[in-house]
Amino acid sequence: MRATDDDEAARFLTYLAVIQIRAMARRRKPFHAWMGDDYVACIAWLADLVHNLAGAGARPQRWGLRRKRHPSMAYTWAVAGRNGRKWILDSLEQEGLAWDPPPETSFGRERDDRG
After folding, report:
1. Prediction pTM value
2. Torsion of CA 114, 36, 85, 60, to 10 degrees
3. How far apart are CA 40 and CA 31, in angstroms?
4. Distance separating alpha carbons of residues 12 and 88, to the nearest angstrom
5. Percentage of residues in the chain with pLDDT exceeding 70?
6. Which DSSP letter does residue 99 get?
7. pLDDT for 21
8. Are 99 and 9 in contact (CB under 8 A)?
9. pLDDT value, residue 51
10. What tens digit of pLDDT does each residue of 48-63 get?
11. Given CA atoms 56, 104, 112, 82 in this order, what sign does their dihedral have?
């Protein structure tokens, strides 16, 4: 296992999420058995999990979004829920990447385990 930092972990997880979303959309079934039967819900769950990691600094101003985004693994980890955390750790491990989760922080309500 090779140690990885938050930035590399975020890039890999975002890439993997896109690949899995594409696979579910084409196959019309969930990528993992634990995600349930509704592949559309699985796609939404996975997109929600990683949306703060993808290109957070490149958001055009014309979008007019005022809500603060948290482009970090700390935020993603804090709101991931049990299944999201499992997906993060299992995915990184399968890639041979060792990543230390951040200490527990409070960013508000923790996500539900929809997956």
Report:
1. 0.74
2. -60
3. 11
4. 10
5. 74
6. -
7. 93
8. yes
9. 85
10. 988 877 654 444 555 5
11. positive
Q: Long-range contacts: 101-109, Cβ < 8 Å, 24+? A: 101/73, 101/77, 102/6, 102/73, 102/74, 102/77, 102/78, 104/78, 105/74, 105/78, 106/78, 107/70, 107/75, 107/78, 107/79, 108/79, 109/79
Q: What is the largest CA-CA distance in the chain?
A: 42
Using alpha carbons only, what angle is made at residue 68 by residues 87 and 13, rounded to the nearest 5 degrees?
A: 20
Residues composing the chain: 115
Residues paired with 97 in a beta bridge: 2
Write the DSSP symbol of residue 10.
H
CB 46 within 8 A of CB 16: no
